[in-house]
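Appendix C reproduces, verbatim, an entry submitted by the partner laboratory led by Prof. M.T., so that reviewers can inspect both the input and the predicted structure.
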Amino acid sequence: MTRGARHNRVLSGRRSSPYTLILAALLMLSVVLLMLLALGIFSLPVNSNDAPKSKADRVSHISVRETRNGMGQRGEQWTEVLSWEPRAFIYHNFLSKEECEYLIELAKPHMEKSTVVDSATGRSKDSRVRTSSGMFLGRGQDKIIRTIEKRIADFTFIPVEHGEGLQILHYEVGQKYEPHFDYFLDEFNIKNGGQRIATLLMYLSDVEEGGETVFPAARVNSSSLPWYNELSECGKKGLSVKPKMGDALLFWSMRPDATLDPSSLHGGCPVLKGNKWSSTKWIHIHEYKV
């Protein structure tokens, strides 16, 4: 009897307890769920607020945000690579129609004959190579301008403090700006902020005919451009951009190795029909004191 009792106790000890069976069942269930999730047969419920938005929802969200941070409704924004020599990019719909009109109306009462910089003295002087009229707005002079300047800094990755004030330009029929460099070849003009590293040219109006921004030294076959047949004779002399209200052209006067880029030579073709309004932001290597 003693031996039989001892044998029964050994057998009972080998039997699995209820807790062990429950844990084994949970483990098996977890493995099955993980397999179903991996195969995509089963999915966990997602909060509707965290669900991915459709493209239309994303565009609407972006438009609302940018309307709050600017003036008016901007169209769809996208970047076009124009050239690598010089480095040039077009930011489509960079400004809204209302922002363009605001800058024009702000500048109109103060327009004067445009000048160029004298490389010997650093002072402005009259020149036949530039026949437009223009004026400078103070950097950060009001909320709208500060918003635009912040946008420029965000797109160029260069701080607002490195930029000169916005220059507003107006070209009437026949007016132009002969090809030139935006960088300086004298020591006087680089005392404040160092060399100009880049230029952002914003088009504030459409132009019926002419008025293109042309890069005659660009290493691009201009005849291959899809808009080549729409260009004026001046525009066909190099890589050209037709003015379009709200678009912005960013080009670099210096290469990534900090040397001056002669392929950034550019000019404003004569306006043949209509009016051309634009705004220029020159950006320096270092902080520009205003």
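DSSP finds five helices and 16 strands in the chain. Additional entries are available on request from the coordinating office.
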